[in-house]
Amino acid sequence: EQDQRLKNLTIEFLDDIIYSPNLLPAEHKAASQLLRLITKEDPESSKVDLDLLLAPPMSPSKESIETLSALEIAEQMTYLDHQIFVAIRSEEFLGQAWMKTDKATKAPHIILMTR
Fold first, then answer.
1. How far from 81 is each of 38, 74, 78, 108, CA to CA, in Å?
2. Which GO terms fall under biological process for this protein (predicted)?
3. No. of helices (H) and no. of strands (E), the chain
């Protein structure tokens, strides 16, 4: 709780500094970079469990493919593609890991994206 309060106060302070007309360009750049780093979302907290996301629902839904609009289906498919794309780590691209024999372990998200 205290950490979040400190973070919010720091963000507020940096916002005030950035809009100060008396800043030198180097100071403005440093304050902007600090603000960007502090407000950047933690990748661990935004991770999505792909197994849970792609698993079939626990209870059957009243909705069927015939009752949903094409737009709703397209939005859901796009959301799933986005979640898979965001989960791709840079290591999966190294040395074209998706082309190797052990691609399922070295590049699972790229393989999932291309299916």
1. 28, 10, 5, 14
2. Ras protein signal transduction
3. 6, 0
